[in-house]
Design brief:
Distance between the termini: 44 Å
Order of helices and strands: HHHHHHHHEHHHEEHEHHEEEHEHE
Shape: globular
Number of strands: 9
Number of helices: 16
Bound molecules: iron/sulfur cluster
Structural class: alpha/beta
Helix content: 25-40%
Length: 336
Amino acid sequence: MTALNFDDCIGCGLCILGCPAFEETGFDVLTARGRNKALQAGLAAGDMVEPIWACTLCGYCDAICPTRVHNVEIVLHLRRELVEVGLMLDAAGDTPEVRLKPDSTRDAVAGSALASWAASGFSGTAPSSVGSGFSRTVLAPPPPRPALVLGCTIRERAPHLIPSIKEFLNRIGRATDLCEEGCCGSFEVEAGRAMPAHSSAGVVSDPICLEQYDAEFLGVLAMQHLDLFELKPPFYYFAPHRLVNRDHARIYPLYDALRRRFGCDTNLDLNRLARSTSAGSVQGMTGRDARDIGAAVARLLTHSRAERIVTCSPADYLAFRTYSGRETLFITECLR
Ligand code: SF4
Ligand code: SF4
């Protein structure tokens, strides 16, 4: 696990610039700086319930922090502490029941005799299942790697996108067999009720699911095949903020190339970082801690005269469609 290095926070305040919790409320105490200063002063998770649940995990603060404080990791850790003592997110009762992705392989190995043997540096007598000899050891085949993970937002709230997603993947020669599992469990991770699962997959259609899968992201593949799309300016492209913020050296150039080619507006600004709508977070749900997504959409579009919105993020697609008053398209709906 990444170090909980809140002591490295120097209080510069750079992280406040694009923090959606600050944009909406104006409260410094709800930002990464506020939490880190509280932790440095010796406050415990139970003393800072609101600051912990106010974070949308957009990752902006991690990307801009000059001392590399792992703010998202710190928030997830604090949330798990809160959940342990029953201080759940207020919206939890309103969220759809989400099932933690089963990770039976990991669970079976952890705590097994084999794991203990490995932890001892492989010294002493090997557990019988290991020492029984190759001729009698039957290795279970690895679970099949799902080709396409849609994510529950598309499955439940925007299933009309599925044919165009499959059409795009067919055109670039990718398999489209659907992963039959339900929710990937990333909201459980965000809500402090689970650890990430990290299964392997082909392509995922929702950046939120990348919390749980090692896979390629549909939106990034789309950026690598721009000739397949009909994108007429003026449009506003909402890039997947968490991906850009988490790995902006790799992801930013792809979306910047789109911006240069079409002259479109985007949510990428402020030192190459991506602003969020909060729609893909647990605070995108209803409840006391719900975020004002309509206000966030209005802020993002303040200076844009784009006639339509295009995005590769399912939750943001729904947010712009609901609140922008402008035509809103998922990237695969723009196939030529
Ligand atoms: S950018 Fe980093 S060092 Fe500066 S206040 Fe935020 S967390 Fe602290
Ligand atoms: S992850 Fe986003 S919402 Fe959370 S503190 Fe950082 S900038 Fe603010």
